[in-house]
């Protein structure tokens, strides 16, 4: 259903319907902004790049192949814009841990709050040791709830490689946490 809705909007845009483009922007703007912010970690720059993405979409919409998901196409454009920016600025990015963890705030004890902050810190430090591709896999999988198939299309690597990298990252993180717990005397 979502795919058909996107195709109808795209056809309308290609026929000159500006309101359909506004609808498309409204539908994807938050997703694209979050994705870009998770890579760049600067709100203003993320907003600028998001705007560039939609300009690119508008200018290149006639090249979109509707056999594929529009969401994958626009996320790929966003990813490429981020890579261009990172290359241009030669800036190392850090991940948006709160989006990555995906935990919602609730009433917690002070001890739980401290533990939560420590956990976020451990995750942030671990993610910052990953390659850019591995960071993108983790961000897309956790923050954007993207399927392995879609991640492979967005990052232009085969699906089995995405899965292998994802599970390797998870396993390495588990080992790191286990070593850390053992070192601190919290062996399970």
Question: Count of helices?
Answer: 9
Provide the CATH topology of the largest domain: Rna Polymerase Sigma Factor, Chain: A
Percentage of β-strand residues: under 5%
Give the biggest sheet. Answer: none
Give the CATH level 1 class of the largest domain: Mainly Alpha
Structural class: mainly alpha
Model regions low in confidence, pLDDT < 50 over at least 5 residues? 91-105
Pfam family, one: Sigma70_r2
Domain RNA polymerase sigma factor 70 region 4 type: 121-171
Family: Belongs to the sigma-70 factor family. ECF subfamily.
Keywords: Sigma factor, Transcription, Transcription regulation
Salient structural properties:
elongated; 9 helices; RNA_pol_sigma_r2; 188 residues; transcription regulation; mainly alpha; Arc Repressor Mutant, subunit A; ECF RNA polymerase sigma factor SigW; Rna Polymerase Sigma Factor, Chain: A
């Amino acid at each position: 259903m979502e795919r058909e809705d996107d195709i109808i909007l795209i056809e309308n845009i290609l026929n000159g319907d500006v309101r359909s483009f506004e609808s498309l922007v409204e539908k994807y703007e938050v997703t694209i902004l979050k994705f870009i912010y998770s890579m760049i970690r600067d709100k203003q720059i993320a907003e600028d790049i998001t705007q560039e993405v939609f300009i690119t979409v508008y200018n290149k919409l006639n090249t979109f192949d509707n056999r594929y998901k529009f969401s994958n196409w626009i996320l790929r454009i966003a990813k490429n814009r981020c890579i261009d920016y990172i290359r241009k600025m030669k800036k190392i990015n850090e991940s948006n841990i709160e989006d990555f963890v995906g935990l919602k705030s609730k009433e917690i004890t002070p001890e739980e709050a401290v533990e939560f902050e420590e956990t976020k810190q451990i995750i942030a430090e671990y993610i910052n040791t990953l390659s850019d591709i591995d960071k993108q896999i983790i961000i897309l999988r956790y923050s954007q709830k993207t399927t392995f198939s879609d991640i492979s299309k967005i990052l232009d690597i085969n699906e089995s490689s995405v899965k292998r990298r994802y599970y390797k990252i998870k396993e390495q993180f588990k080992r790191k946490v286990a070593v850390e717990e053992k070192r601190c005397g919290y062996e399970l």
